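A reminder from the course coordinator: this example appears on the midterm review sheet, so study it carefully.

Given structure:
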């Protein structure tokens, strides 16, 4: 037992060490964008950032700031760092970012750090990522709690698989995406659902809607799955909308509607209309893939909403069906649209729970899947040497691997092929999840019997 605990301590220590090393030396512009706006909440007491800036950033870039909970959570962490004096120089740094951004003139990320020593730059970048480490610890606690409620042995497997997952390490600690906050609320919904606390699950889901766009896709399936009767479904939906509206409606009124661009901006509309790749691009493919997703989504809704035999229940396993259906929908979505590594964080908690419970595919197939995901994503300067620009600011201009190889081989077509292979594998995983995890439960719900756990 002592050796086992010592081994776990070493693995956990190594995982934390990797995070602590990556946090200060990697930087993408999105990290600064994520932290810049909440500065007005934590230092200037601006509660409605959308009305404060109005259409300035809409005109400048076609979108506004992220969803409200990202603003408030980031601002609260900044405030805590401020009052504990753990972020000296942060206010001055953000004021410099503000002066640079508001001019709307072309500039480099390194311009924000002019006059700062390398150590000061490392410290500021580390501080901006520090909340992610705290929230990840909370995510691990929830993940293990969920697994213990299902099967105590699964907690260790989930913990082990989480610690060194490349999508998590890259998205959160290299790229610096805020989507670890989204993962937290997803796990919170699942945690309450596993405990059959549907009202709390509904409240948590309303907060989840305030963190990102994708939860709207999962809203109807969530209500259909967690509620066993239409009366219960209406109650859950009411909890979700009440929780969401408590924050969104005051912002919408005060901002004059600008907060709505979080969910429907020109940039988002353009991105949603794009095809899968630039190479092998056929105009009709974008439309075909979108129609395919809508058709698959509508079919799943119909399957979930079919009349159920009286008295037939899932015996407390609705949360497992919820996890499987959400993963299925998001994988179909990824197969039909452009997908960045950080967007895989949407499905990440569902993916981890499915992989923990049983192996629906081999380890090698999973490795090939993530290899494809990274291969077609890492083709820009910002995600090559530019990601390590805090070590040397000139690295932001180093040509990417894509640029270096494009003149020597059909590298663009290779990237496109990886993208199409990724889509194919998304469909394969969706098929396995449906066959092994969804279909048996749907058969029970419809009174048709069926096995499965």
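Designed residues:
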């Amino acid at each position: 037992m002592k050796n086992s605990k010592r081994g776990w301590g070493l693995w956990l220590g190594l995982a934390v060490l990797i995070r602590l090393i990556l946090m200060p030396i990697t930087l993408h512009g999105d990290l600064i964008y994520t932290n810049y706006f909440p500065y007005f909440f934590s230092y200037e007491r601006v509660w409605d950032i959308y009305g404060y800036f109005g259409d300035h950033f809409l005109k400048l870039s076609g979108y506004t700031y992220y969803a409200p909970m990202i603003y408030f959570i980031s601002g609260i962490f900044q405030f805590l760092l401020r009052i504990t004096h753990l972020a000296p120089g942060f206010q001055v740094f953000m004021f410099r970012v503000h002066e640079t951004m508001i001019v709307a003139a072309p500039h480099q990320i390194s311009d924000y750090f002019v006059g700062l020593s390398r150590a000061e730059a490392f410290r500021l970048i580390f501080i901006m990522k520090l909340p992610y480490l705290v929230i990840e610890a909370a995510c691990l606690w929830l993940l293990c709690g969920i697994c213990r409620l299902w099967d105590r042995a699964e907690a260790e497997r989930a913990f082990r698989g989480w610690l060194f997952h490349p999508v998590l390490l890259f998205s959160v600690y290299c790229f610096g995406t805020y989507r670890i906050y989204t993962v937290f609320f997803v796990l919170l919904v699942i945690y309450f659902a596993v405990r059959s606390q549907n009202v709390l699950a509904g409240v948590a889901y309303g907060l989840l809607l305030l963190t990102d766009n994708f939860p709207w896709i999962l809203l109807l399936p969530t209500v259909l799955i967690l509620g066993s009767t239409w009366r219960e479904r209406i109650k859950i939906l009411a909890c979700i909308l009440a929780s969401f509206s408590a924050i969104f409606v005051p912002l919408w009124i005060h901002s004059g509607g600008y907060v709505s661009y979080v969910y429907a901006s020109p940039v988002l509309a353009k991105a949603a209309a794009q095809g899968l790749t630039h190479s092998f691009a056929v105009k009709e493919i974008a439309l075909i893939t979108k129609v395919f997703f809508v058709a698959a989504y509508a079919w799943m809704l119909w399957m979930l909403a079919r009349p159920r035999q009286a008295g037939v229940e899932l015996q407390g396993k609705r949360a497992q069906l919820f996890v499987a259906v959400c993963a299925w929908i998001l994988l179909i979505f990824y197969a039909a649209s452009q997908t960045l590594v950080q967007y895989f964080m949407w499905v990440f908690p569902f993916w981890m729970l499915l992989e923990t419970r049983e192996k629906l595919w081999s380890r090698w197939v999973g490795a090939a899947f993530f290899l494809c995901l990274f291969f077609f994503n890492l083709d820009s300067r910002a995600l090559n040497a530019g990601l390590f620009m805090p070590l040397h600011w000139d690295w932001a201009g180093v040509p990417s691997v894509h640029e270096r190889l494009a003149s020597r081989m059909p590298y663009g077509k290779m990237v496109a092929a990886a993208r199409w292979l990724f889509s194919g594998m998304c469909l394969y995983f969706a098929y396995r999840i449906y066959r092994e995890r969804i279909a048996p439960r749907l058969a029970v719900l419809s009174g048709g019997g069926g096995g499965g756990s």
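The two ends are 31 Å apart (CA to CA). The CA atoms of residues 373 and 422 lie 6 Å apart.
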